[in-house]
Amino acid sequence: MAQGLSYELPHMFAIITAALAAGSLRITDIVDAQAGLWFVVLMPAAFIVYVLSAAAMAFWGPFDAPVARDAAGGAASELSGVDRLLFAAGRRLLLVAAAAMAVPLFLGGGHGPWLPAWAWVGLKTAAVLALLVWLRHRLPTIRMDRWAEISWVVLVPLTIVQALVVALVVLARGGM
Questions:
Q1: Alpha carbon distance 50, 135 (integer Å)
Q2: pLDDT tens across 68-92, in order?
Q3: Number of Cβ atoms within 10 Å of the Cβ of 65
């Protein structure tokens, strides 16, 4: 339970921060609120926490300890055949979905010059996925107890402070 909460709570706080800045929970409203400036510029901490926690939820990159090869396969060690394939596909699908969701939350959705909106969404999603793949090959595996400590001591307070700053900016410009 503590492990799950250690990456889900910062993830949710990052999403709430984007919604707070837009003044709505609707994805279209969040994208429209970024017409002038993407939220990744206004709230970089929330974006970084969102990407890290998405990787942790998919057991990707430095967060692959529960399914690591050095632990004889970890949680997937007893899986074989179709079960193992579905488990691996589910992890990758979760990663792609989280990367795709980062686009409307923090990267302005389909806003961009010259190309149609769907092309911008595809390019931005591919860029976030490329970042996650690059991080996977550059960072060492983090033990889950260490990640839980970092999450509770650093990421949760950081996302709360980021949300507070965004709330103050929203209030200063006249509310929602």
A1: 14
A2: 555 555 656 666 778 777 877 887 8
A3: 18
User: What whole-number distance in Å separates Cα of residue 57 and Cα of residue 11?
Assistant: 9
Which residues form the domain of 166? 2-62+92-172
Question: What percent of the residues of the chain are helix, what percent strand, and what percent coil, each to the nearest 5?
Answer: 75, 0, 25
Q: What are phi and psi of 59, to 5 degrees?
A: 50, 50
d(CA 68, CA 80): 15
pTM score, whole prediction: 0.82
Q: 84 in a domain, yes or no?
A: no
Q: What is the number of structural domains in the chain?
A: 1
State the alpha helices, DSSP H only, in the chain: 2-22, 27-32, 39-42, 44-57, 81-106, 117-138, 144-150, 156-172
- 43: CB partners within 8 A, 6+ apart: 17, 18, 21, 106, 162, 165, 166
